[in-house]
Amino acid sequence: MGMNRREFLRTSSRYGSAALLGQSLLNGCAVQPSGTVTPGIGAEYQPTRLPTGSLLSLPASEAPIDHVVILMMENRSFDHYMGWLSRDEGFLERGLSRYGSSFSIDALSSQTFIDNTPGGTGAAVDTFHLPADPMANPWRGCGFNDPGHGWKSGYAQRDGGFLAPRSGNDKYALGYYEADDLPFHSRMARRFTTFDRYHCSALTSTQTNRRYLHGAQSGGYNYNYVPLSEGGFQWETIWDRLRAANVSVGSYFCDVPSLAFWGGRMGDIIAPIDQYFERCANGTLPSVTFLDPPFLPWWQADDHPHSDPAAGQRFLRDVFRAFTESPHWQSGAFILTYDEWGGFFDHVAPPVLPDKDGVSAEGYNYAQAGFRVPTIVASPYAKPGFVDHTSYDHTSIMRFLQWRFLGAPAEGAGGDGAPWSLTERDRAANNIGACLAAENPDPVVFDLDDLPLRWATPDCEGGAYVPNLSQQPERGPRTTTSSSTSVPLPVLVPEMAADPVTSGGPGGDFEDLAEIGYFEQVGLRFEASSMAGTWVEL
Fold first, then answer.
1. Is the dihedral of CA 479, 147, 506, 82 positive or negative?
2. Cis peptide, bond prior to residue 306, ω within 30 of zero
3. Which of 184, 334, 370, 500 could make an S-S bridge to 203, C-beta 3.0–4.6 Å?
4. 68 is in which domain, residue-wise?
């Protein structure tokens, strides 16, 4: 019999009172810093040396990156979070000085859209700085829709703008943040490498995009499908391939492990986030680590609306600091990305990429990638304040792991059937490791203790929307044509009804999984980490 929602909430919520225990572990897990720290939040880091060469010019076995940490947050677009970079004079001046006259970034926070939403006026509406707006809570967007980020909403936004009739959006989707609103992101972008052509893998919601990160495919589902009858998704993932090659892997969760969607076979690599901090301190992290933020609504720190980014900033600061203070930092890379754009505005049209599921008979184009998402790679081998203009998606991270650990070529699809690849998508993906240097590493990190971080504001009145996963829509039609085209094919989706309005993010999905007995059915038993409530004031 499955655990019902009430039992799940009671089991998880008791750890809210254990937040102090989690904070104690945070304070106690630090070791002598592996990388030195430059103090002061106001002083921009001026490197005494620049990493040189290209990591991909080396044989994979000689690459200096031995430990990779991957963290996927939720539902923010590049212009919404990082548009300020094009107006950061210091960032631009340092980039021109270090990298020459070709240095640039394609970021744009000031845009205008025509309001064609239901009941809209047809007037032009400008994007705006969220914290400067008189709305009740600009940090959470209380009183506004969770911006549309489903299949139909995404196509409406692509074709008609972010206030199109079926966009699922209102004013909130046109808000943006400045550098000082997101201290962790701003310092990371100025110190390490960011990307202005990193797109989410699919023009739809959370779980489809996470499926691409782990398995290089949608499975033919363009929504947050739950594989209850299958006992978890059965196709291979990068985690299966790495384990088969005797590469150590680990996935650490705060309240619910997202790898649970692949069933019980992931049980032996899943552990609570406490163990991540302990392993960082002890120098025993696996070669490849995947992190899940807190998803559940009462301590949510995944950045999904209507959560307050302040909680996410605190979580990001702590997991990154643990890695930089570990012995692994000297040979490590920390990759921060977001699953999808969350319905927030972005001015760059999403590309079409090779895909195993192609275009269905009813026009579902699984080859259609989504809008850009904030992505940063931090490493002693990352170029400071650099912008990579290469086209990437989530499978580009997989492509890096396949090169470093599984025998894939540094670039290109390779030959002999590419046994290292999972699908056409990852085989054709650009390797995100191309952003890293080969020599002259610089391990210096800005002072993470001096970041001016807020505590999250109170929840929006009424709480989070919880979807009913026991009444799922039908699976999208299967592939009938190739996806080799380089332009978006006609789709029927915008002619259908709009996506339902939702709020709250994956936490509601996971609550419902507990109620229908999914975790027990696939053979997974776990409890929320004692640290899950560390990053909010409970």
1. positive
2. yes
3. 370
4. 5-76+184-302+315-366+374-438+474-521
